[in-house]
Design a protein that fits this description.
By secondary structure, the protein is an alpha+beta fold. 16% of the residues lie in helices and 33% in strands. The chain contains 3 helices and 9 strands; from the N terminus they run αββββαββαβββ. The strands form 2 sheets. Strands 1, 2, 3, 4, 5 and 6 form a 6-stranded antiparallel sheet that branches. β7 and β8 form a beta hairpin. The longest helix has 14 residues. The protein starts with a helix and ends in a 30-residue tail after the last strand.
């Protein structure tokens, strides 16, 4: 959690975000965006995007070589082992950003900018993956980051919406349909 907080303190904010606020409630961690009014017009009572993560704890065993593992050093019990000290451990907290779309990033205002923040966090992480499709004025781009490494992704459009002639009788007009 300390590494995440340091990353957020030193992060270059995308255009439209003035600052980030972090909050911890019980076993949840929230990263809230504050809009830059000079760049983005967001209403006073419009909630801006918020990233939600659950906080998990894991016990890490420190081996004599200094290596950290999640399993203790296993040896057969003997008289010498009883006399030795216990293996050194450390309890580590980490943030789990898990779920799809609105379960990770809440609220619509500044959602794309907060996804950019989430990509920076994913690139800095040791474990996990982030997948998404970003659509902007330049086109569609696929994003996939696995264990901190960005992978090549291709996105293929398989269906294109055609222009519909509203005067055509074979097309259902859902807006003015008397049966709905």
């Amino acid at each position: 959690m300390n590494e995440l907080q340091e990353l957020l303190d030193d992060i270059t904010l995308p255009s439209g975000i003035k600052s980030l606020e972090t909050e911890r409630k019980n076993n949840m961690f929230f990263i809230t965006s504050q809009a830059d009014e000079d760049v983005v017009e967001v209403g006073r009572y419009v909630p801006t995007a918020k990233i939600k993560a659950s906080i998990q704890e894991k016990r890490v065993y420190i081996q004599s070589s200094g290596e950290r593992t999640t399993t203790p050093h296993q040896v057969s019990p003997s008289v010498e082992d009883v006399q030795q000290e216990e293996q050194e451990t450390e309890l580590i907290e980490y943030a789990c950003f898990k779920g799809y779309d609105d379960t990770v990033i809440h609220n619509q205002a500044l959602k794309a900018e907060m996804f950019d923040i989430l990509k920076v966090i994913a690139r800095a992480s040791e474990r996990g993956e982030l997948e998404g499709i970003v659509c902007d004025s330049e086109g569609i781009e696929g994003i996939r980051i696995v264990d901190g490494v960005e992978e090549n992704v291709s996105v293929e459009i398989v269906s294109v919406q055609e222009e519909v002639d509203e005067d055509d009788d074979s097309v259902v007009n859902w807006k003015d349909n008397k049966y709905i």
